[in-house]
Design a protein that fits this description.
Blueprint (H helix, E strand, L loop, with lengths): L3 H14 L5 H37 L4
Length: 63
């Protein structure tokens, strides 16, 4: 990094080239992520419960 001023100018120029998402795109993407997190949480909760019961029966706790 020879010239910090030039570096910052280039960073700013590259930042200006970025196509930022619209508010609607951001909200839709955030909603999709939220729904996937809920779905994954429900799946892992149910899998944990089922496997816990099965392991309990296998080792004799769930008689």
């Amino acid at each position: 990094m020879e010239n910090p001023v030039q570096f910052l100018q280039e960073v700013r120029a590259e930042g200006a080239k970025v196509t930022w998402p619209t508010r609607k795109e951001t909200l839709v993407t955030t909603g999709g992520v939220f729904m996937m997190v809920l779905a994954a949480s429900a799946f892992f909760f149910l899998a944990d419960q089922v496997l816990g019961v099965l392991v309990g029966f296998i080792i004799g706790i769930g008689r």
